[in-house]
Design a protein that fits this description.
The complex is a heterodimer. By secondary structure, chain A is α/β, with parallel strands linked by helices. Chain A is built from 14 helices and 11 strands. In chain A, the strands form 2 sheets. In chain A, strands 3-2-4-7-1-8-11-10-9 form a 9-stranded mixed sheet, sandwiched between helices. In chain A, strand 10 and strand 11 form a beta hairpin. By secondary structure, chain B is mainly beta. Bound molecules: zinc ion (ZN). Chain A: Its EC number is 2.3.1.176.
């Protein structure tokens, strides 16, 4: 078994004066302090960054972090896997420890997106779909329209995801958007891509998060260690025709993660999932088995996904309110779950919080996703 | 009709210049599966794929309208859809007629056109295939 023994995160938002590496340094220092270990104890570094090469021409930044931190003679792996870059780094670090290659590994995700003319994210500039006008919000909007058509999901139910997200974020000091929204204010905001108004689309952000992972020998001496029961990474199947009301990969990854952890949806106390757009969270409720297929809109409208509800989802504020610095997101989700499972979440603490699921998804391909990660963590 | 022969396609080999135009996809020479755009080899069985006429008629499976800043010089707003082709079992992503942006609905029948719309990655004008509502 591999455990998480330290977490570090910096507030997400606009850090115009900070570099990718400078944010990573701060998150790493916080994680080392939290774990109460020294830099010399780190046996490997998995560094996630998705956009540095396209926005700034920067590559292999992981070694810039380790060298700035005086961490020497290490295996350093740079990871790019769209929105799952950070959670893929986590997956790889766990595997390295399971393989016996090291006792302690550092996972960092750092991203800088707040630059002029950032525009909309796509899934590859030379892909045919991108050239025909596919932008990320449109891919999710096509899912929303189909879900509304097949299951009667309403604009008000979509808006409920944002209202809940802001309520949660108001309790999280590192969240980007903490101002309350109402159903009316969400629906009255400017339309971005039908049916999403602006508050239903996750904002771009700068930010970094870090984790320290350790094997049993080390973790046994740490009383705040949180166990990783399973961690999976999968690509899709890309069959035609794709069903836009469900990602094949979403269901397959979740099923595999539950199976490997020996758990079921009934055991889940808290979820951090990839709510890039309001509909995404609704589809993930269904894939995660929190409700029946087609019922996701009604699930959130009833308050079942709220703090104090059946299974609180994205208590951190999620991508919609915490912000979405691409490769920091997958790491930040795990930071939140560890904080909750340690019962250290303060005002947003989920009661009886023993088992959590982190779920992340990245890139569009042929009506499915390029990458999906799911991790099950427990006290 | 205008002569578009001097304007490059946004993506090579995905439509014919006939009137009316046809979509060109790929059909596996071994298992018969249809793929769009035509892949190097069949992902189902790794056999050779030959170019095949995918026709010009489709039905909308889902559709949306992008109202924020448009990429690639596309008009704003513009609609995009997933459409089910009539001639082959294939659901594909499609740009919709800019003049009809915002007016499309699920289940509607549409047909293929080709015209200069927006620019390519080199910022040059290019031909894009798009679907219009049947009159
Ligand atoms: Zn084949």
């Amino acid at each position: 078994m591999v455990s998480i023994i330290g977490t570090g995160i910096i507030p997400f938002g606009r850090h115009l004066e900070r570099s990718i590496v400078s944010m990573a340094i701060e998150a790493t220092r916080r994680a080392l302090d939290d774990a109460a270990i020294t830099r010399d104890q780190i046996g490997a570094c998995y560094f996630a960054n998705a956009l540095g090469s396209s926005l700034f021409g920067d590559t292999t930044l992981g070694q810039n972090l380790t060298s700035a931190m005086g961490m020497v003679d290490l295996p350093v792996v740079n990871v790019e896997n769209a929105c799952t870059s950070g959670s893929t780094a986590f997956y790889l670090a766990r595997n390295a420890i399971l393989a016996g290659e090291c006792d302690i590994a550092l996972v960092v995700g750092s991203e800088k997106m707040c630059v002029p003319d950032f525009g909309l994210i796509n899934s590859g500039a030379t892909e045919l779909d991108t050239l025909l006008g596919m932008v990320t919000p449109a891919g999710f909007a096509l899912r929303a329209k189909r879900h509304m058509h097949e299951f009667g999901t309403t604009p008000e139910q979509l808006a409920a995801v944002t209202v809940k997200s802001r309520q949660h974020a108001s309790l999280n000091p590192i969240a980007q958007f903490t101002k309350p929204e109402t159903t009316e204010s969400v629906l009255a905001s400017p339309m971005i891509v039908d049916p999403f108004t602006r508050p239903q689309c996750c904002p771009i952000a700068d930010g970094a998060a870090a984790l320290i992972l350790a094997g049993d020998r080390v973790a046994a001496q740490m009383d705040r260690a949180i166990a990783i029961r399973s961690a999976v990474l999968t690509s899709g199947r890309y069959e035609n025709p794709a069903d836009l009301t469900r990602w094949h990969t979403d269901y397959a990854s979740v099923a595999l993660a539950y199976e490997k952890a020996g758990t079921t949806p009934e055991d889940v106390d808290i979820v951090e999932c990839h709510d890039a757009f309001s509909i995404a969270e609704i589809l993930h409720y269904e894939a995660l088995g929190l409700c029946e297929r087609g019922e996701g809109g009604r699930f959130v409208e009833r308050g079942d996904a709220s703090l104090g509800g059946k299974v609180p989802v994205n208590v951190s504020g999620g991508l919609l309110s915490r912000g979405h610095p691409i490769s920091a997101t997958g790491v930040a989700q795990i930071v939140e779950l560890v904080t909750q499972l340690r019962q250290e979440a303060g005002d947003r603490q989920v009661e009886d919080c023993n088992l959590g699921v982190a779920h992340c998804m990245g890139g569009d391909k042929k009506g499915d996703t390029k990458s999906c990660t799911v991790a099950v963590l427990s006290r | 009709m205008n002569d578009f022969s001097q304007i490059p396609p946004v993506y090579a080999g995905i439509f014919t210049a006939d009137k009316p135009p046809s979509l060109i996809g790929g059909q596996c020479t071994s298992c018969g599966a249809h793929h769009f755009p035509k892949p190097d080899i069949c992902p189902d069985c790794l056999s050779e794929v030959r170019g095949a006429d995918f026709g010009q008629s489709a039905t909308i499976y889902s559709v949306t309208t992008v109202r924020t800043r448009a990429p690639l010089g596309l008009p704003s707003p513009y609609s995009v859809a997933l459409v089910d082709l009539e001639d082959v079992p294939c659901r594909i992503f499609a740009l919709m007629d800019p003049e009809q942006a915002g007016s499309f609905s699920i289940g509607q029948r549409v047909s293929l056109h080709v015209a200069p719309i927006g620019v390519n990655n080199e910022q040059k004008a290019c031909l894009r295939p798009y679907f219009s509502a049947d009159k």
